[in-house]
Design brief:
The complex is a heterodimer of chains A (291) and B (297). Chain A is mostly helical. Chain A contains eleven helices and two strands. Chain A has a domain of 192 residues. Chain B contains 13 helices and two strands. Classes of the chains: A mainly alpha (291), B mainly alpha (297). At the A-B interface, helix 4, helix 9 and helix 11 of A face helix 5, helix 8, helix 10 and helix 12 of B.
């Protein structure tokens, strides 16, 4: 029983982690809580659905298509709504701008697709394997494998490539990176693109896993993913992964052993407890304040 | 008074005026926390719902007089603000934002499962005791007290915390105590606004006090201009009127609302009246007089 819950929790948690990565990467570089990120995830789920239903594409191709679409969307949002504000306003104005984008995108999707919940057609043969008392569905395996591949890929990119090095430099000090000849605007665009693609992948997989896609799905998922990013220590990429998985597992455990009507409260309750004990999150580093 | 007003003013406009008044009280509370003291709170609606539910339950189920239940609602919100404030105000910036979002969500889920509050259906049939006169009298009292506070030694200490917490602490300001104080006072106003809202709307549900409501209140503070009383009032007026005016575009309403938020932030990044204080305006005019005297010489 507990192993089954753990598996379900890890599946949910890996999707939280995919969304949380976008929050944490953007935050690491420009200290912006990108409240539009949950909506990007929602758009990703819809684009995937559209591709599968209307063009009959293979689900893998649809996943890539949704990721590509959201890459462009994420970059567009950054250029239109955040770039004009950078450097000349308080961080709060940028947050309000992000909220504006979030309202805009979810309303746009309501206008396009109406508010009713849509379902993915049965595209994958979901088989259930029995491992002792543990029931594993092929869908869970796919989600865990895809999420793991994406996270490993991200980690390799950030740690080993030139552009990853530039991203790390920007997250340490934006001004110094600029002086070292890094095209800061390009790196920020790139960060938004990568984060949005990961969120889109999460959106498509959640859409299939829970068999539900609707225009307001981004709000709560976005809040929880942000909670996961903060839990792990915002700005830290491994932190977002660990935070997402932890939150997913604890939430499923809470629902299973405590109460399902308090589902949404459990995630936030855990977060608050962790932050009160460890204010910088699980993996975050304590930065001493300077005058 | 209200009967008299409704003879001359269309009930629709009267309703908007009432909502503007209630929103001003709510937004001024948040302004104290986020605008003046610089502690980003994104869960103001949670405290509002505490005030709304407490006062509604008191006046409906226990038959308390209206003023007493209104005050009790505000006190309940302040109490929670105080006890939540102590551990959380150790956190900074965005961690605090997350925790306040979390608390508001927990409060919302609590009311969703709260038997005396009617669970998800909410409470209806709350006596409509909130009158036009009461709302606007309270607005005036709150504005005057706020202005007095911000102009005092204490108010300047709040601004100092926002500008630079370490420097404020070095100047002998007990930052933790003052942050908790600002948080408690802001929550009190949220509870007061919540009570007024419940006794005006006649019907409350947990969804009314969700994340979007907190965001709406935050928008009022930021859009008007952080830390400025005239700014917060202007922000509340605009953001209460805006959705009403956008009714002409029907289902595109929220689309325009979202786009306008982005556009306003791009063109007025520090809010419409960023940091305008009555004191500063006076000083500005005083300087102009000096200037004109010099030029006439």
């Amino acid at each position: 029983m507990i192993w089954q819950q753990l598996l379900n929790g890890l599946t949910l948690g890996s999707t939280y982690a995919l969304i949380a990565l976008g929050y944490t990467m953007v935050y690491g570089i420009i200290q912006l809580i990108n409240f539009a990120h949950g909506e990007i995830y929602m758009v990703g789920a819809f684009v995937g659905l559209f591709l599968v239903v209307n063009t009959g594409l293979n689900i893998g191709v649809a996943l890539l298509g949704a990721m590509a679409f959201c890459m462009v969307l994420g970059m567009l949002v950054e250029i239109v709504a955040y770039r004009p504000l950078r450097g000349k306003s308080s961080r709060l104005s940028a947050i309000i701008s992000a909220i504006g984008v979030s309202i805009f995108l979810s309303t746009l999707m309501v206008l396009i697709a109406q508010t009713n919940t849509r379902r993915y057609p049965e595209i994958i043969n979901i088989e259930t394997y029995q491992l002792g008392s543990l029931q594993v569905s092929s869908l869970q395996i796919i989600i865990l494998v895809v999420a793991a591949l994406l996270m490993v890929g991200l980690q390799v990119m950030v740690q080993k490539t030139r552009i990853g090095k530039a991203m790390r430099a920007c997250s340490q000090d934006l001004d110094a990176s600029y002086l070292m000849g890094i095209n800061v605007n390009r790196i920020i665009s790139f960060t938004f693109a990568v984060g949005s693609a990961l969120a889109a992948a999460g959106g498509v997989m959640v859409g299939i896993y829970y068999n539900a896609v609707w225009p307001y799905m981004g709000t709560m998922a976005g809040l929880k993913a942000f909670a996961a990013a903060v839990l792990g220590g915002i700005g830290s990429i491994p932190g977002a992964m660990i935070g997402g998985l932890t939150l997913g597992v604890l939430e499923i455990m809470g629902v299973a052993y405590l109460s399902s009507s308090y589902k949404d409260a459990i995630a936030f309750g855990i977060l608050i407890l962790v932050l009160i004990i460890r204010p910088q999150g699980i993996m975050g580093q304590k930065i001493s304040k300077k005058v | 008074m209200d009967a008299l007003l409704s003879q001359y003013i269309d009930p629709y406009y009267l309703r908007i005026l009432m909502l503007i008044g209630i929103n001003i009280i709510l937004a001024l509370g948040l302004n104290l926390i986020t605008g003046v003291t610089g502690q980003l709170s994104m869960g103001h609606a949670g405290f509002m719902s505490l005030g709304a539910y407490t006062s509604a339950i008191l006046s409906m189920q226990l038959g308390c007089p209206f003023f007493l239940s209104l005050l009790a609602g505000a006190a309940m919100a302040a109490l929670f603000g105080f006890f939540i404030g102590i551990p959380t105000l150790r956190l900074e910036g965005d961690y605090l934002a997350m925790v306040t979002i979390g608390f508001a969500e927990i409060i919302r889920v609590f009311f969703l499962n709260f038997e005396p509050g009617g669970k998800a259906v909410g409470m209806s049939g709350i006596p409509q005791n909130t009158t036009f006169l009461l709302v606007w009298t309270l607005v005036i009292i709150v504005v005057v007290l706020n202005a007095k506070l911000l102009n005092s030694r204490l108010g300047r200490a709040f601004y100092a915390i926002r500008e630079n917490e370490i420097a404020a602490e070095a100047s002998g300001i007990n930052t933790t105590r003052l942050k908790v104080l600002a948080f408690t006072a802001g929550s009190f106003l949220a509870g007061l606004g919540g009570g007024l809202y419940a006794h005006y709307m006649y019907f409350i549900r947990p969804q009314d006090f969700g994340f979007m409501k907190s965001i709406e209140l935050l928008n009022m503070v930021v859009l008007g201009g952080m830390g400025s009383i005239p700014g917060t009032i202007l922000g509340s007026v605009i953001l209460t009127l805006l959705p009403e005016m956008l009714r002409v575009v029907a289902e595109y309403r929220l689309l325009f609302y979202g786009a306008l938020l982005v556009i306003l932030m791009i063109f007025r990044p520090n809010g419409l009246l960023g940091d305008v204080r009555v004191y500063d305006i006076k000083k500005k005019f005083a300087r102009k007089k000096v200037g004109s005297w010099q030029s006439s010489n």
